Structure formats: C-alpha cells, structure tokens
Amino acid sequence: MRIDTAAGSILCDPWVNPAYFASWFPFPDNSQLDWETLGQVDYLYVSHLHRDHFDAAHLKRFVSKKATVLLPAFPTSEMEDELRELGFTSFLRTRNEEVHELDGGLKIMIQSLTSPTDGPIGDSSLWVEYDGVRLLNQNDARPTDLSTFAELGHVHAHMLQFSGAIWYPMVYELPQAAKTAFGKQKRDRQFDRTWRYIDDLKADHVFPIAGPPCFLDDELWQFNDIHGDEGNIFPDQSVFLSEYAKVGGTNGVVLLPGSVAEITTDSCETTHPVPVDEFFADKVAHLEEMRERKRPVIEAEKASWRHPEIDVLKEMKRRVEPLLEESVYLAKGVGGPVRFDLVGYDGESVESIVVDFPGKEVRPYADEKVRYRFRTERALVEHLLHIGEVDWVNSLFLPCRFSAARIGQYNEFVYAFFKCLSRERQQYAEGWYDEHERSSDAEDVTIGDWVVQRRCPHLKADLTRFGIVEGDQLTCQLHGWRFDLASGRCLTSVGHKIRAHRAETPAS
Ligand code: FES
C-alpha cells in the first residue's frame, strides 16, 4: 500500500517477490505495477521482518534510498541493520505509541508489539493523520485492543488482516476430517477476531489487506481457497465481503493492485484497474495464469537450495547446542526432544536428528518418544544452515513445505526457540518470559460464574473483553486459547495456567 498526501508519501510493506522458499506469492499479482514510479517515495514503513512484508530484493531495486524509514521501536536492531545493508541511510526511530509530526503537518504513530510470539520478534501498526483524515494500517499485527488509536480521534480508514498466515492445521499428520474441522474453527476464529477489531475502531471504511497469499508451486496448490474446502484457512477478500455482510458490515472496500482510494473525512472514492467482482469471479483462471508465468521463478529458486557439502547434524550441533546450553525458559517450556526427519534428494532416504531440550544436545534420533516431529526436505535445512538463518519459523515453517506430528498440546516454546537461533534474539526471548513469569497478575474479575485473573495468561488480553465463559471453560477470543477453569489448566498450549475460582456471587 502506498499512502499519498500533499505532505508526503509513505510506501508500506511493498512485497512482490515470492517468500518462504518460493511458497507464498502476493495475490492478486502486483509484479506488473510501475514500481519504478511507486518506489519514489518520501517515507518507507516496513511493519516487521516477515518476508511477505520485508522483500529485500524489491526494496533494494525499486525503493528510493532517499526515503526516510519510519522505524518501529523493536527490541533488536535487525530491521535497521537489514535496511542499512540494502542502502537506506535515513531513519526515524519512532517511540512506541507516540505521535510524531513530520514535515508539512503529516503525523504518524507506530505501535510496536514485541513479545517473542509477535512476528519475528516484533510486529507493528502504522497510524497516519493528514488534514483531518486518519488511517490505521493495522496490517497483521494483533494488539490486545485498538484503544491507543481510537483515543487519537475518529479513524476514517482501517486496513487489517482477515485471512490466515500460518501452517496450521494443514501440515499436521491428521485424518482429513479432523483437519477440516480444525481448519474451519480457525477460519471462523480469524473472522471473529477481525470483527472485534473492526468494532473496536468503528472506522468509516474497512479495507481487508495483508493476505491471503497464493501458492503457485504444484506441491502447494491445494492450499489455495479454490477447492470448496470449508476448512481452508486462506479465504480471500471477496469471502471477507460476504462474511462481513452476514454480521451487518456494509463499509468494506477491496483494493486490487493498481486500485486507488481517495479518502476524505466524509467520503471514499475508489477506482480499480478491473471490476473487483469480475476479478474474483475469475480467480482460478488468474491463479492458473500466474502459475504458468511464475514457474521458472520457482524452478530457479528450487535449484539454489541444495548444499550437499553441509553435514547437517554437525552444523546443527555447532549452531544450536550453545543456545540450548544458555536457554532456561524456552528449554524448560519445550520440555522434551524435538525430532527433524530430513528427506534426502532421492525423496526416500531419511536422516533423523533430535534437538534434545532436556539433554541440551543435538544428536541422532534414538528411537524415543518425542514432543514434536517435523518432516521436511534436507535441502531446505541445508539452505538455512548455509545462509546462517536465525529464524526458522519465518523460513522453514511458514513455507508449509513440511509435515508435523506432536504428542499433546501445542507448545509455543518450540516455535519461540526456533525463531530465536541467535544469541541476541534468544536473550530477548528468555528475558521476556522471565519478566512475565515474575510479574504478578494480581487483578481478578468476575466473568459469568467465575472469578479469573483479568489478563489472559497467553499474551495479556483483557479477559473482560476477550474472555467468553461457557460452563467451566474460558476461551480468550484474541487467539482462541481455552482454559479449564476448575483446574486452571490451559487446554491449548503447555504451561500458561490461569488463576480462577468459582464466584460466590456470579456477575450479572
Ligand atoms: S492473549 Fe492470546 S489467547 Fe488470550
């Protein structure tokens, strides 16, 4: 998205090239826009380092290096470092949730989310005001609520994510019926969360953005929402409009690449390169045409992944064992071995490697019970080791080029650990969990028949707003985590106990 005002232009998350081992492509295709012109901007805003937001090749080639980067206040300097590498030199290091006045009366505020589960250690939203018009590009950030923005005055345009951007449940080795049921739950939850955010802000116009991606490699084609699968987690913008209409939403605006929306305090006029309805009616044809056109790009990427000279076990030992050694909270949170089955180039031979969290070592699999098992191509891991990737969630899991099985519940610490394969990131994540473990969450509230701690044990959502109690179970609607109130046990993930007891006088 590019925001143009008389006081300057801001280019937001220009993503064009495929991300995550050529798995995700932007849909609709935006590669044929006039990027030479679009890249001539005054400001650049990149919400976070996920590769479907931070497209290094595109930033390098097309975005003016005279642009000032509006930098979120993230705990590590990685984003600034990477942008400097690409040639950017002018940075405005914003302060979290503070309005900054730029030249010509343009005002911006960036809210940075910094828990280890937010993006690749950090995600953010951009608020902009010019000439009385206010816009929130919430993107795919998930703040607990939008009050920080609402307090700055009525918002006219609200851009937010509504679709899926994860590998769950598709990659799990589950019977198809279970996968469909979990997928459907997830799809419903994504929409519920979106309605809640929209309701929080009550903007004049709502723009569904930030996904879904499309999958053009034949191996991943089934993930596109074109097969009538009600458990598909990647509904598109046209589905958003019809679902939104069911809950009474009439102010949704869909933009295609090349669409322009002129927003004033009392109107929103849009022009589109082709009629939006027609475009989505032809979605399968568009995807098939893209698939043919992008085939060489995918093939070229695939050819670059193999590094047979790398001894994966040895290299993983060298990279991961020092981190295991230093890890306290993450290693304890994982609490068991995690197995990687690496499929060789022939598609059949398998090397099994275990990251043993209690034993603090990386070693060959020893016919044991493991907490998680991931099965993927050896070449992908070779490539990550070759480039020294520090975030395997960003790069190995988001591509969806793997299958997974687990014993027991979802374990967020597994993903937090593999997102933090550098000392800097790991220290940050360890410190974050340490602080949260210590912080006493003293305030209790009554919800239905129960007195519970006010803040969700997951990421501190206010349960007076997000908590729904049904019988003895509480669901926090921010990410859908469930808790058994009688025992306090979290039913969604390991750890994260909730404090709760039955109310003597139930709340009305
Ligand atoms: S904050 Fe994530 S489920 Fe409650």
UniProtKB/TrEMBL annotation:
Keywords in alphabetical order: 2Fe-2S, Iron, Iron-sulfur, Metal-binding
Record carries keyword DNA-binding: no
Gene Ontology molecular function: any one: monooxygenase activity
Protein name listed in UniProt: UDP-MurNAc hydroxylase
InterPro entries: RibonucZ/Hydroxyglut_hydro (IPR036866), Rieske_2Fe-2S (IPR017941), Rieske_2Fe-2S_sf (IPR036922), SCP2_Rv3818 (IPR057330)
Source organism, top-level taxon: Bacteria
Pfam families: Rieske (PF00355), SCP2_Rv3818 (PF25451)
